[in-house]
Specification:
This protein is of the alpha/beta class. Helices cover 61% and strands 9% of the residues. It has a six-stranded mixed sheet, with helices on both faces. It has a four-stranded antiparallel sheet with strand order 2-1-4-5, with helices on one face.
């Protein structure tokens, strides 16, 4: 299966997949289940001290077990103590049990998140063009709690309810089989409620999860682009857009919670009918002498407890259905297979020379009607600097994406040191690459952490050497805490030129064989550009380099210039060769010269 098309759903398939996460924790899960059984058995003993008190302390009934005291006051004291223990032990044990249950649930969430985030980072860029990042973040952070909801919030209450149900039914049958039949006569109505919930609640829960994800997207959009919002005085529009989505989300939540409450009320009504029927029949049995008052009290107590677990099952089923809807959104990610990956037996890259070859490469984006690259062929030996020029949309960035192997060709072959990229181990190949993007990509972390991102094992000496080579050491040392200064989200505490020099230093520290420079000076002023270009030239030495450039000042010293137009290579040669020949390159040079010399 390729792409990210959802797989067909089978009944309870999501639940079964989530339960697999219990495998590594089966011993702990079993221990909790055993404790749950003990607590459930203690719960079954709750009405018996009251029965014994009514029949043997307040009444004159005989037939006491030999191990109980015959004297009434002593028996009453024993029963009071037993009742206290039966009530308090499960309560305090429940605290310990709850701590274990929550802890195990959190481990399951962590395991689920680990699988999801690892898979996300293996997926190809095409997947991320089809899914908003905010939605993926919501699936990763919020929807992964579904494994805890289904296992800990579903299995344990369900197990406890079933254990209690089984024990109570056995005791009730022993007390009076007629009353037991009256009690369970309403069970088919509970079954109808549970069945209808499975049909109605799941889709509602799915719509709510999707709406909450969209709300997160709207919130992050406004915060991320706050400078643009304020610059265009669009605050009111953003507030209206966010509040409209908030209202839609709350409306979905209200519908779901109202539906769940409706089912709860229905189960309460059915339970009340069953209780009244038992009270009527049981009261007649007491008056006829077939039951004692204590027996009826035990029966009524169990009846309340019987309908309680059934109501709990209904509520738990609702929780499980809602969680399954959220889990399905995570499994949609896990079921998406990467378009790009290592073939079986892929060759690990070692001692690379850096030679790159394109052979009749064609590529089309999935949603596009036209090819982004058309019959692109060229070959460059290791250590060669290649400049890619051409108008916007000519295919320069796409070509570099093929080198990084973000995408695979629709037709043709991209080779590295003579080997098809698809036959190379992807990780070992990409470790030989470094990218300096057009817009500096930095993290909310220290300068040192940002520099080490591509090579976390680098020594302090290597970090300093890279910073000096990129001409970044001067401004770094002037920061409040030097290399340990936190530079804020996207490096906002630095100027654009400083940010770009940090990305150059990061690439230098990685010591790549192949370097991709995506218009690294496009957003810089002339003075900053000159200092950055010096760092770039240091970075390019001895490496196979591909430079995407609109500013031709960055390509004068390139060994080879490839001129692209409409996805095709229309010219190739050195700067001087292409400058002397009429064609697209000459027109680009003349247009930029006019732009640079125009009065400002």
């Amino acid at each position: 299966m390729s792409g990210d098309a959802p797989r067909p759903r089978r009944p309870f398939a999501v639940h079964a997949r989530l339960l697999r996460y219990l495998g590594p924790h089966s011993a702990r899960f079993g221990a909790i289940l055993l404790q749950l059984a003990v607590v459930s058995v203690l719960g079954l003993a709750r009405p018996w001290p009251l029965k014994l008190a009514v029949d043997h302390v307040f009444g004159a009934m005989g037939g006491l077990p030999a191990w109980l005291p015959a004297e009434r006051s002593t028996l009453f004291a024993v029963l009071i103590g037993a009742s206290l223990l039966i009530e308090t032990i499960p309560a305090w044990w429940g605290v310990w049990l709850n701590w274990q249950t929550i802890g195990l649930g959190q481990r399951l969430v962590n395991d689920f998140r680990a699988d999801t985030v690892q898979h996300l980072h293996r997926l190809s860029l095409l997947f991320f063009t089809r899914h908003p990042p905010d939605d993926l973040v919501y699936r990763l952070t919020a929807n992964t709690f579904s494994v805890q909801s289904i296992t800990m919030g579903g299995l344990y209450p369900l197990g406890s309810a079933l254990l209690t149900l089984g024990g109570m039914l056995a005791i009730m049958l022993r007390l009076d089989w007629r009353l037991t039949l009256v009690s369970i006569a309403v069970l088919p109505f509970f079954a109808v409620i549970i069945r209808s919930m499975s049909v109605v609640v799941g889709p509602r829960a799915t719509r709510l999860a999707e709406s909450e994800s969209q709300l997160l997207s709207e919130a992050q959009r406004g915060v991320r682009a706050v400078h643009l919002v304020q610059a265009f005085t669009a605050e009111d529009d953003e507030v209206r857009r966010f509040m409209a989505q908030s209202e839609r989300t709350l409306e979905q939540a209200l519908k779901l919670y109202t539906l769940q409450t409706l089912y709860s009320s229905a189960t309460t009504t059915v339970a009340a009918v069953g209780t009244v029927a038992v009270l009527y029949v049981g009261g007649g049995a007491v008056m006829a002498g077939r039951l004692t008052v204590g027996d009826l009290l035990v029966f009524l107590s169990y009846l309340a407890s019987l309908y309680g677990p059934i109501n709990s099952i209904v509520q738990t089923f609702s929780t499980i259905q809602a969680a399954a809807a959220q889990a399905q959104r995570v499994f949609e990610v896990l079921d998406s297979e990467p378009e790009v990956g290592s073939r079986p037996g892929a060759k690990v890259v070692s001692a690379p020379r850096g030679a790159v070859q394109f052979e009749n490469v064609r590529f089309r984006y999935p949603a596009a009607s036209e090819l982004a690259l058309v019959d692109v062929s060229f070959e460059v030996p290791g250590g060669t600097s290649v400049a890619l020029v051409g108008p916007t949309g000519a295919g320069k960035t796409t070509l570099c994406s093929m080198i990084v192997r973000f995408f695979d060709p629709v037709e043709g072959t991209v080779r590295f040191d003579g080997v098809d990229l698809r036959d190379l181990d992807l990780k070992s190949y990409r470790r030989r690459l470094a990218v300096v993007p057009q817009s500096p990509l930095l993290f909310h972390a220290t300068v040192n952490q940002n520099l080490l991102y591509g090579r976390p094992d680098a020594s302090r000496e290597q970090v300093l050497r890279a910073a000096h080579a990129a001409e970044a050491a001067g401004f770094i040392e002037k920061l409040p805490h030097g290399y340990d200064t936190v530079i804020g989200p996207d490096g906002v505490q630095l100027s654009l030129g400083q940010q770009q020099r940090l990305t150059i230093a990061r690439a230098l520290l990685r010591d790549p064989t192949v370097l991709i420079l995506d218009e690294p000076t496009a957003s810089l002023d002339a003075e900053t550009e000159r200092s950055v270009i010096h760092g770039i030239e240091t970075l390019m030495k001895g490496r196979t380099t591909f430079v995407i450039a609109h500013r031709l000042s960055t390509v004068r010293r390139a060994d080879l210039i490839l001129v692209l137009e409409n996805g095709r290579i229309v010219q190739r040669g050195t700067f001087d060769e292409l400058r002397a020949v009429p064609g697209l390159f000459q027109r680009l040079v003349e247009a930029q010269f006019e732009e640079d010399t125009a009065p400002r």
